[in-house]
Structure formats: structure tokens, C-alpha cells
Design brief:
The complex is a heterotetramer. By secondary structure, chain A is mainly alpha-helical. Chain A is built from ten helices and two strands, in the order αααααααββααα. Chain A folds into two domains: about 100 residues, no CATH class; about 160 residues, Ribosomal protein S7/S5 (Ribosomal Protein S7). In chain A, strand 1 and strand 2 form a beta hairpin. Chain C has three domains: about 45 residues, no CATH class; about 325 residues, no CATH class; about 45 residues, no CATH class. In chain C, about 35% of the residues lie in helices and about 10% in strands. In chain C, helix 8 packs across helix 11, helix 15 crosses helix 16 and helix 16 packs across helix 17. Chain D is mostly helical. Chain D has two domains: about 60 residues, Helicase, Ruva Protein, domain 3; about 45 residues, Ribosomal protein S13/S18, C-terminal domain (30s ribosomal protein s13, domain 2, Irregular). In chain D, about 50% of the residues lie in helices and about 5% in strands. Classes of the chains: A mainly alpha, B alpha+beta, C alpha/beta, D mainly alpha. At the A-C interface, helix 6, strand 1, helix 8 and helix 10 of A face helix 1 and helix 3 of C.
Chain lengths: ~290, ~325, ~475, ~120
């Protein structure tokens, strides 16, 4: 038997005064206290002493003999039946898997959203990683991402340029390096454009395209912003050599964005300016009959 | 003497009665449709399509034994004897099939109103195909009639199993294939006497077998430790995700074998294998594991390359002129 | 006029402008609508402009910023335009950047109650599983000995600190007893990748520096044997040995910097006529080390220094000689002799000096330790070393010795001879207690953000099997900090 | 700039590559020369002590390189030509000598093959 680090194990020797219980979840805990043998339950019938003996022999071979726990008495069928009767007296379903089908407690449902292995990373981090990826090399992109976050963490706190304000609600600049994911999110969301210019071919007359502003949703906005950042990064020379240089450049550009030094801000302003200018086209007579 | 003469008679009619005295043997094969009827005065020829015999072929019996007692002249009696088909279907193109069909129709008329169960609940049965039926009966069965027959079979099959009469069950039996692929019994899963739970998982082209035992959190994959086997941390997390999402890391030891595919496939095959093995230990974790994305087999595979394409979908470069 | 006004809707308020000021100067202008955001562009006139830098003029047109909006494209595979204006980096600059070692990070939280390393800290088994910070002066010494490596995670923390693990305490106690008995501890540190071999050497150096040892370190053995530094035959040696003057000079300078306080206390006992400058008897060893100014004289000076250190008698400190990358000196080097034959690594004088001490051919008269660490990263295959170490391990464990492959010809007998009698310390994963100490330190530094409890330790331990470098990769080089 | 056998070399040039710029001095020979004077393969010309540079120059001046080596090649070709062999004729015509096809890709032979061969 492996050593249990469960506080409940300390209570096993205590006798429990049965008391009617209202909620099954409490009852599940009660059952846990009542059970003398943690390995025995209906689903897995592993309560013969042979199991303990073999496991102990294996543990000894590993050189880690666990602390001696009083050998759990094998539960006879009578006892089990009695226990089930007792549970029935509590108003429990004695065959309920919620009560019997676990050994260390059941996690509360719904489990945390990042506990799904397809969504284990932050959404921004996930999206940016995929944007960093080239030639399908996700592992490299992930390592780059981790290095970017480390670089953000270990560089000095940014000095905010009041002319290039960050997105409202962003934390104080001194806080940013301690939360690199937040740092990245703030940088990207701050330079993310609200609109893009959508073109309707040949509608403006003379073969020219008619331009209209079109709103972007959050994911699209982030994609545009990070695409601009990558454009800048790819043009910058790296100061050193080795595989850490690309993430360093990206991280430096992100810091430059937060400090308002980056040329990405100009791109954002440009597109916003243009968007307001071409707003006049929304009610253009040429747009009649065209679904926006 | 008597028996030899009897044999001679039956041989003359190419009958198949091989019985000993006092015992009625079921007649089989193609001659069973014939029976020998005594030309008793007053006996009528059976001309109705309704045969009074039960549909059960086992109960089709040969006609009464020809009385060869010395009182009557054997030759005389024999001269009056003549073969009569057991079933009027004898004169059709596919007598055996027709008999079965008719029997089914009769059953449907009798039991058609019994309560049925929805199709989704009906036990899967592999029915004989037209070819199978043709081969087994040796008759040239028409596909339309076979289809009608099979529809009837399926209708009778949906009768609630608790109410299904024995006659129906027996009538449906010959329509089933001999080998029933749907009848694979689920293996009994459980923890073995050493406390191990075993499960398999697949992803892409990888296969993982995992054994899970309560322990201190050690992991061996193809006899290597986890960091030795998976260089990428993401893959290590994937492999142990079932334990991670239920806070079981450090409570179980994993011993696993993986083969085929690349690192991602192997890691995620392990996810599934370990999750399944964990559910053997603790069935109550299934809802949590499902939400953690560990229970479902990811069915995506590499799409096969097609003829006339460079890859699965990529066409060769092509210019019209 | 509508265009600029509506553009304001897309701007956002300056983070720098205090709210009250904005409110005080609020005028019911049409463009300060409730949703508007404003004075960010600086044109509003409502903000105090003193410290606000002027916004840049509109994006430069013409420089690839055409009105058709081509600039919006986010083409994935744009041809790298390179840096046309930036001047190319000087020779060696890029490498220096790559090898840069940053030992502190002011963003990381200072760890409360982090004990500084003291001379006896690493001897006390009670300290197993705790972190100890390296004092500032020692950081410089270790840096000059090149004990820190660029691949380690030093730049994440406020101050460099090391984990005291059971192997550390074991090794330091053995070093201490060797020094007190005036014996030589000869030991090879092995282990899988990133199990902390180099860091154990660093800890031993730290111990040596704090306890007034003379510490000599060869940080990368491959620099000696891969034919990238100058070499020259030493006259009157048979078989011919080769000195590496440039490397030797670098090493003497490192020794001088790191051990200045110890060396300045010891005086010379021999006269050294062969030296380029006259060092009288009873001058300090520091002065002797200072005599090495030119590569030509480096080897002579080093020999003189070594001779002084090897003098048996009082007032001579124990010596710690460490080398990282053992497999590199357990093979034929890439250098060639004038006869165009490959030179064995053991024929390089510096390597010979080290391996003689390691093999026990020469002993340190004043006690001390000679430590070598194997390396698993960029290491050549050295079957003899693998075999010899496996045999030493089996001897220590009392099991049957592994036998050499009878038909394998790649063994190198000279290397095996060196490792005949060394003791071996094989590093494995951390215990959970040590892992917990490490993770608590990370949490205190603000890097590991979840609570450190039994569950978290078990989780990270399972992902890394306790290997310390893997623990770092799992916790410090991760996308979900 | 360092002068070896009358040729000036940039200080950042590898010694090995500098040696290989001489005609009839390839990688194998240059490696041997380096070994003979105990110069490591990654040494730059600038790091060589003047003594070694002189020694190198002396060494090179004893070898048949540059014009001496060219002369030998030219003599060989001339001999072939004088005897009137096929190979000599091919050399003179600037065509491949060793039976290669001449339908296309004879650039190298057109450049190099002549009686007074230079390269």
C-alpha cells in the first residue's frame, strides 16, 4: 500500500456515529470515512491480501517501503451487506458510482476550462503560438512562445507613452512583467484594429474597388495586430545568434508596442483613419442590393 | 425380408425414410417434399395451398408406413401408391423459399400486433444476403421476393424480446448468418489480482497499452522514464492528462507500451489508454474525464492519397493550353 | 469634418491623464461623447500637454505605405528585406550576445528569508531541500571561473541561488574530509541529461571559494581538444606533449581573479628562473600569477604556479581542480602532430595535468579534490569512459563488473587507465522534498503562480521524473506560467 | 595584412584557406602544412607569429606550386599534342578528353582545355 497523504486517513480509526444525511455529496465523504480499506470498492475488487503482498514486495524492490499502515481487515460479504444497509438507511443508493466508484474523491464538475487538454493554454497564447508557427512546426513555436514569455518576464517594466495609451483596464506597468501572459495580451489588444477595410470589386466606378469599413471580432483583431508585429519582427536584424534570437526580437517588439515606440501603432491609426474616411461609402447608391 | 422389401420400396420412390420401426425420422434434402400416400378409397388429393402441416420442417413427416401385412397383396397395394408433394410449393420454382416465406406471413398475421421495440434498441443481427440464401437453399430466388421476405423478417425481429414467441424465434433462425459479427461480447474489465488496470488507446497511427497501479507517480513508457521518452513537455502533459485533470498525479504508477506513429500520436494514444485504465479503477471519474477530453478516441487519420492527385487532394499543375 | 471626429471614436483615453484633470477641463464639445475616448491624440486641447510627447506625424507615405492599403497585408512568407540601414554586427558580437550570462533580474520578487551560502551551509544535512543564495563577491569569482552557463535559468531570478540536494551535502562532506586528511578526492560526476552535473561542480567551486581553497576550473573540455585554440610542442618531452598557450593564459587569469584573496596570502617558496620576469622568493602567488601577460609565457607561469601549489607544507591551501565535459578528453583530439598524426588528448599538457591528478598518478600534497563531470549534450562517444564508469559504479555497488565487448575496437586504453580508481557519483532525479524546496523558491520569486502543495509537487515531479533540469523546463520554460 | 609568399592576405582569413589559394595546393596538402608548423585548423592569418609566417613562406617556396605546377601540366599536354594522340588533339580543340558526351555541357573543357593551359 502506498502511503496516503490524505488527512482523511487519520480518521479511519475513529468510529462514526451514523446520522441521517441529507446530501449525497456529504454522504460520499462519509463513506470515505467509513471505509477501512481504500482499495476496496464494488468496481474494483482488489481486496485480497495477495495484492498487498505483491505490491509490498514491489515497493521493497524499489527501495521505498511505505510507512506501516495497519493492515486493512478484509471486508466480509456480511460486513459489506451491513454497510450497504446502513447506506440505504441514509437514503443513499448503494450502487451509485458517485459514492463507490472512486478512491480519492471526485473532482467537482464542471472541471476548470483549462483542464481540457485541447484548451490547456490561454486563448491569446494559443492563438499567438499558432501564428508564430511556420511549416507546421508547433513544438518549435511553443518553445519560442515560452521564451517570449520568459523574456517579457525578465525585462524591465515598460515606460508607458501617454500618447499611445494602452487598452483601458490594463494593469500598472510595474505589474506587467510579473504576468507575462497579461503583458502579451495587453500589447496585442492595445494595437489591435477595430475595423478592417473591405473592398467590393469594381463598385466604385472606373474599375476601382469600393472600400467599406467592416468590424472585426476579437480573434480577428488579435490576428491582425500580431501579424503586424510579426511583419516588423521579420524585418529587424537580430543582435545575436542562436535559436533564442527570434523570440527575443518578438519580445522586444512587444515591449516596444507597450512603450509606444513601435511602428505598429501607425498601422493601426492608418487603418482607423481610412475606415472613418470610407464610412461615407456605406450608404453609397452603388451598394444597393448588396448584403453587407 | 420385410425390411429388405421396404427398402426396395423406398428406394423405388427415392424416398429417404431410413427409420427403424416405430420411429418417425425427419425427412431431409430434396426428397423430403414427397410423401407416399396410400391410395385409400375416399382419400382426397391435397390441392389447397394451405397445408395443414405446421410450418416446422422438423415436424414434416413421411406418410404412414405402407402396410405390407400378408393380408393384403403387397403388389396390389404398391400399385396404388403414388408420390404426393408435402408442400404445394413443390410445384413452384423455389419451393423451400416459398414455404419459409409463407410460414413467415402466417406468423406475421398471427403475431404482427405484438408490441415492438424501437429500431434503435433492436439487437443487431447480420441477416443472410440473397447470395447466401441462394447458395444455402440451392434455389433461384428472386431479389424482389427476397427483399419482401427480409422486410418481414426484420419486422418480426422487432417484436419485444420478452414477448417474442418461440415459433417466431425459430422461424427467424434460418435467416441469420452463421457467424454473427455483432455478437462480440464485451470483455470483462477490472483490476487484476496485482491491482493493475489495463487499457489500450489509439490516436493517429499510434497504439498505446497502459497498465495503471496505485503508487507514487512513477511512469515508465517502453521502459524509459517520461522525460526520457517524451522530450517535449507538451507531450508529457498530454500523456498524463487523465491523471492531471483529476488530480491523480502521484497516486498511480503507469507502465505503458507504445508503438507506431510520432510523438504527438503516441502521447495522445497514452492519454486515452491511461484514462480508460483510470476509469477501471474509479468509474466515477468518467464525467470528469470526458470533460477533460480524455475519453473520446480522436478518429482523424491521414487522408489517403488518391489516384490522379499529387497528395490527397492536390491536383497536378494543369494549364489548359 | 466628420471624418476626424469619428476617428476619435476609435481612439482611447490616455492612460497617463488623471481622471480629475480630464473632468475639470471638461467642455461639452461634440466629440467628447460618453463613448468617446479621447484626448489621446493630443489634438483635443483638453489635456495638459507638458509631458505629452508630440504624436508622430501621419505615417510616412511613399515608403511602401501606399494609399491602396497594401500595407495591411499580413503575408506569411514575405521576403526578408533585411536591415539595410543597420550596421552589421562586429565579429564576435553575435557570439558574445549568445554567450551572455545574466545573473539577476530586478523584476523577480526578492525571496524573503533566503539564506546566503556560508562556508558550512552545504555540509549540513539539515539544509537538504533548501535554497541558498550565492553571495555577491562569490558571483564574480564564479563568473570569472565560467561556472555559470548560458543555458541555465539564472536570468529569471533576483539573485542566483542553488538548491542543496543530498548529493551536494555528500560531495561537500567528502571534500571536507579529504582536505582535512590532506588526501585527494578523485571523483567523476555522471548522470543523464540535465540532472545537475554542471551545477554540482558549481556548488563544489562555491564551497572551495568560501573555504579558502584554490579553485581551478576547465569549464568546457572541448575547448581544449577540438582544435580551436593554439598549440605548440613542449621541447624536451618524450613522448611529445603540447602546450596551449592562449587557453593557459585565459585560465591563469581566471585563477588569479577568482582566487585573488587566497593567492595573495601565500608566498612563493621556489625561485623561478625560467619566468620572463623575476619573481623573488617570498613574493605572493598573486604576483606570480600576474607574471603571465603574454601567451608565450603562460605555460611557464602556470607550471610555476602549479609547482608552488603542489609544495608540501604548511600554509598551502587545498586545491580544487574541476573539469566539465569529461568525454572530450577521453579520446583522440582533433589536433595533429607535425608528423600528421592525431594527437591523443592525454598528450596535451593541460589535459595530462588534469588526468594525472584524476587518475591518482600525482596526488595533491595539501589535500583537495579533483572533479570531472560528464556531459550528455554535445558529447563525443567515448566507449572506454562509459565502460570504465560503469565498472566503477558496479564496484561501488558491489555487483558484477560489466565486461568490454570482445570484438569492439573503439576502446581507448589510455582513457580507461585514467579512470581505473576514481569514484563515481551518479546523479538522478530529486526527491520530492528537494523538489518541493525548489518549487517553493520559484513560487516565492513570483514565477510559479499556483500554490505549492503536495499535489502541485507530485504533478510537476511526475512530469519531470524529478530530474532537476526537466523540473526547470516544466516550470520555467512553459506556455502557462 | 600578412604577406605569405608575396601574396597579401586579410588578417581575418583562415590560414588553411589562405594556403589553398595557391595553385596546386589543396585541402590535403594545406592540412599537412598546418600540422607541420603546429597551426590549428581554425587559426586566422592575423594570429600567426612572424616566425611562422616566414617559415610558411620558406616552406611554400620549396614546393612546386603556382607557375611550376602549371608548367608541368602544360608540358604534359604539350607532350600529348606532340605525339599526336587523341587526347592531345582534344585538348587543342577545347573539347572533353576522357570520352564524355559533347552534345551539351562542355563548359569546363571549353574553358580549360587548350595546349597552353592556364587554369
Amino acid at each position: 500500500m502506498p502511503p496516503r497523504l490524505n488527512i482523511l486517513s487519520g480518521f479511519r480509526a475513529l468510529s462514526i456515529q451514523p446520522r441521517p444525511l441529507a446530501q449525497p455529496c456529504v454522504a460520499a465523504q462519509a463513506r470515505r470515512l467509513l471505509a477501512t480499506d481504500t482499495t476496496s470498492n464494488n468496481a474494483s475488487q482488489i481486496q485480497d491480501n495477495n495484492f498487498n503482498g505483491v505490491l509490498r514486495a514491489k515497493m521493497e524492490a524499489f527501495g521505498q517501503v511505505p510507512q506501516e499502515e495497519p493492515a486493512p481487515p478484509a471486508m466480509s460479504e456480511n460486513e459489506m451487506a451491513l454497510k450497504q444497509l446502513q447506506e440505504a438507511a441514509y437514503g443513499l443508493n448503494t450502487y451509485d458510482p458517485e459514492v463507490h466508484g472512486h478512491k480519492f474523491g471526485v473532482p467537482a464538475l464542471p472541471i476548470a476550462p483549462d483542464m481540457n487538454h485541447k484548451r490547456r493554454y490561454d486563448t491569446v497564447v494559443e492563438q499567438v503560438t499558432k501564428l508564430l508557427m511556420r511549416d507546421g512546426k508547433l513544438a518549435k513555436a511553443q518553445r519560442d512562445m515560452a521564451m517570449i514569455l520568459n523574456h517579457l518576464r525578465s525585462s524591465p517594466a515598460p515606460k508607458i507613452n501617454p500618447a499611445k495609451p494602452l487598452i483601458p483596464g490594463s494593469p500598472a506597468p510595474e505589474q506587467l512583467p510579473l504576468d507575462p501572459v497579461g503583458y502579451l495580451t495587453v500589447a496585442i489588444d492595445s494595437v489591435a484594429p477595430l475595423i478592417k477595410i473591405r473592398k467590393y470589386a469594381k463598385l466604385a466606378g472606373g474599375g476601382r474597388a469600393l472600400e467599406l469599413p467592416a468590424p472585426l471580432h476579437l480573434r480577428q483583431r488579435r490576428r491582425w495586430a500580431f501579424g503586424w508585429i510579426l511583419d516588423v519582427v521579420n524585418k529587424k536584424p537580430s543582435r545575436g545568434s542562436g535559436r533564442g534570437m527570434f523570440p527575443t526580437r518578438v519580445a522586444e517588439e512587444i515591449i516596444a508596442v507597450v512603450e509606444g515606440r513601435s511602428s505598429v501603432w501607425e498601422k493601426r491609426n492608418e487603418i482607423h483613419k481610412k475606415g472613418t474616411a470610407v464610412r461615407a461609402n456605406v450608404f453609397s447608391s452603388r451598394m444597393k442590393g448588396i448584403k453587407l | 425380408m420385410a425390411s429388405s422389401s421396404r427398402q426396395a420400396v423406398t428406394a423405388a420412390f427415392r424416398g429417404a425414410c431410413r427409420s427403424s420401426r416405430g420411429q418417425w425420422q425427419p425427412l431431409n434434402q430434396q426428397f423430403q417434399a414427397l410423401r407416399i400416400q396410400d391410395s385409400v378409397p375416399g382419400a382426397t388429393r391435397c390441392i389447397s395451398t394451405e397445408i395443414e402441416q405446421p410450418t416446422d420442417y422438423n415436424s414434416i413427416r413421411a406418410a404412414a408406413e405402407i402396410d405390407l401385412t400378408p393380408g393384403a397383396s403387397a403388389v396390389e397395394r404398391l400399385a396404388n401408391a403414388r408420390p404426393v408433394p408435402v408442400s404445394p410449393s413443390y410445384f413452384t420454382r423455389m419451393p423451400k423459399f416459398n414455404d419459409r416465406f409463407l410460414a413467415l406471413e402466417r406468423l406475421a398475421r398471427t403475431y404482427g400486433n405484438l408490441p415492438r421495440i424501437p429500431n434503435s434498441h433492436v439487437q443487431h443481427v447480420a441477416w443472410q444476403t440473397l447470395e447466401d440464401m441462394k447458395l444455402s437453399l440451392g434455389e433461384r430466388i428472386k431479389s424482389t421476393e427476397f427483399a419482401r421476405c427480409l422486410a418481414l423478417v426484420k419486422k418480426l425481429h422487432t417484436i419485444h424480446p420478452k414477448l417474442k414467441p418461440r415459433a417466431v424465434k425459430e422461424a427467424l433462425q434460418p435467416f441469420k448468418k452463421e457467424v454473427q459479427p455483432f455478437k462480440v461480447e464485451k470483455k470483462e474489465v477490472g483490476v487484476d489480482k496485482y491491482g493493475r488496470a489495463h487499457a489500450a488507446g489509439k490516436r493517429k497511427s499510434s497504439v498505446a497499452l497502459a497498465w495503471l497501479v496505485e503508487g507514487t507517480g512513477e511512469v515508465l513508457i517502453n521502459s524509459k522514464t517520461l522525460p526520457e521518452y517524451f522530450g517535449r513537455v507538451h507531450d508529457r502533459e498530454s500523456a498524463l492528462w487523465a491523471l492531471h485533470s483529476t488530480d491523480r498525479l502521484g497516486k498511480y504508477n503507469v507502465w505503458a507500451r507504445v508503438s507506431g506513429g510520432g510523438t504527438t500520436g503516441q502521447a495522445e494514444a497514452l492519454t486515452l489508454a491511461i484514462a480508460k485504465a483510470l476509469m477501471v479503477h474509479e468509474p466515477a471519474l468518467k464525467p470528469a474525464l470526458r470533460r477533460a477530453g480524455c475519453v473520446t478516441r480522436d478518429p482523424r487519420k491521414v487522408e489517403r492519397k488518391k489516384a490522379g492527385h499529387v497528395k490527397a487532394r492536390k491536383s497536378p499543375t494543369w494549364v489548359k493550353r | 469634418m466628420s471624418a476626424p471626429n469619428s476617428l476619435r471614436c476609435l481612439l482611447r483615453p490616455s492612460a497617463a491623464v488623471p481622471r480629475q484633470i480630464a473632468a475639470a477641463t471638461w467642455t461639452p464639445s461634440p466629440w467628447i461623447a460618453p463613448f468617446s475616448t479621447t484626448p489621446g491624440a493630443g489634438k483635443a486641447g483638453t489635456t495638459p500637454k507638458k509631458n505629452v510627447p508630440k504624436p508622430k506625424a501621419a505615417a510616412p507615405r511613399g515608403v511602401g505605405m501606399n494609399p491602396t492599403g497594401k500595407k495591411q497585408s499580413m503575408k506569411k512568407f514575405k521576403k526578408a528585406q533585411g536591415a539595410k540601414t543597420a550596421k552589421p554586427p562586429l565579429p564576435g558580437e553575435r557570439k558574445a550576445m549568445r554567450k551572455r550570462i545574466q545573473l539577476s533580474n530586478n523584476n523577480a520578487l526578492p525571496v524573503e528569508g533566503l539564506a546566503e551560502l556560508e562556508p558550512g551551509t552545504m555540509l549540513n544535512p539539515k539544509n537538504i531541500g533548501t535554497m541558498a543564495a550565492l553571495p555577491g563577491a562569490m558571483q564574480d569569482n564564479l563568473r570569472s571561473l565560467e561556472a555559470f552557463k548560458a543555458t541555465q535559468f539564472w536570468p529569471m531570478f533576483r539573485q542566483p541561488a542553488t538548491l542543496i540536494r543530498s548529493e551536494t551535502v555528500d560531495l561537500m562532506n567528502r571534500m571536507q574530509s579529504a582536505a582535512s586528511k590532506k588526501e585527494t578526492l578523485r571523483l567523476v560526476v555522471t548522470g543523464e541529461r540535465i540532472t545537475g552535473k554542471s551545477l554540482l561542480l558549481l556548488q563544489s567551486m562555491a564551497y572551495g571559494l568560501q573555504n579558502d581553497w584554490v579553485v581551478i576550473n576547465i569549464p568546457e573540455a572541448q575547448e581544449l581538444t577540438t582544435a580551436c585554440t593554439e598549440y605548440a610542442p613542449i621541447p624536451d618531452t618524450d613522448p611529445v606533449q603540447y602546450m596551449q598557450n592562449n587557453y593557459c593564459l585565459k585560465m591563469i587569469q581566471a585563477i588569479r581573479k577568482a582566487n585573488a584573496s587566497v593567492l595573495s596570502k601565500i608566498t612563493t617558496a621556489y625561485s623561478h628562473p625560467e619566468l620572463p620576469q623575476n619573481i623573488p622568493i617570498n613574493s605572493t602567488l598573486l604576483a606570480l600569477a600576474n607574471a603571465a601577460k603574454e601567451p608565450e609565457s603562460a605555460w611557464v607561469v602556470f607550471q610555476a604556479l602549479w609547482k608552488e601549489l603542489m609544495r608540501k607544507g604548511a600554509a598551502r591551501p587545498p586545491v580544487l581542480f574541476t573539469l566539465d565535459g569529461l568525454p572530450h578528453i577521453m579520446k583522440v583530439s582533433d589536433y595533429r602532430s607535425p608528423a600528421f598524426e592525431l594527437i591523443h588528448s592525454q598528450d596535451l599538457a593541460l589535459v595530462r595535468l588534469f588526468s594525472d591528478v584524476l587518475s591518482g598518478a600525482t596526488s595533491l600534497p595539501n589535500g583537495g579534490a579533483v572533479l570531472a563531470a560528464t556531459t550528455r549534450g554535445n558529447a563525443p562517444r567515448s566507449p572506454s569512459m562509459d565502460l570504465a564508469l560503469a565498472q566503477r559504479e558496479a564496484e561501488q555497488a558491489g555487483t558484477e563488473l560489466p565486461k568490454p565487448e570482445p570484438y569492439f575496437k573503439g576502446y581507448d586504453l589510455r582513457s580507461e587507465e585514467v579512470l581505473k580508481t576514481v569514484s563515481v557519483m551518479k546523479l538522478k532525479g530529486l526527491s520530492k522534498v528537494e523538489a518541493r524546496g525548489l518549487m517553493e523558491y520559484w513560487a516565492a520569486s513570483g514565477i510559479f503562480r499556483a500554490t505549492v502543495d503536495e499535489k502541485a509537487v507530485a504533478a510537476k515531479w511526475a512530469l519531470s521524473a524529478g530530474v532537476v533540469g526537466e523540473m526547470e523546463r516544466v516550470n520555467l520554460l512553459t506556455m502557462h506560467p | 595584412m600578412v604577406l605569405i609568399l608575396g601574396v597579401n592576405f586579410n588578417e581575418h582569413k583562415l590560414v588553411k584557406k589562405a594556403l589553398e589559394t595557391f595553385y596546386a595546393l589543396g585541402p590535403a596538402k594545406s592540412e599537412r602544412i598546418l600540422a607541420k608548423y603546429c597551426i590549428h585548423p581554425r587559426a586566422k592569418v592575423g594570429t600567426l607569429p612572424p616566425k611562422t609566417v616566414t617559415a610558411l613562406t620558406a616552406e611554400l617556396s620549396t614546393m612546386t606550386i603556382e607557375n611550376d605546377a602549371r608548367k608541368i601540366v602544360q608540358d604534359n599536354i604539350k607532350r600529348l599534342r606532340d605525339i599526336g594522340t587523341y587526347r592531345g588533339r582534344r585538348h587543342a580543340m577545347g573539347l572533353p578528353v576522357r570520352g564524355q558526351r559533347t552534345r551539351n555541357q562542355t563548359e569546363t573543357s571549353r574553358r580549360l582545355n587548350r595546349v597552353e593551359r592556364r587554369g
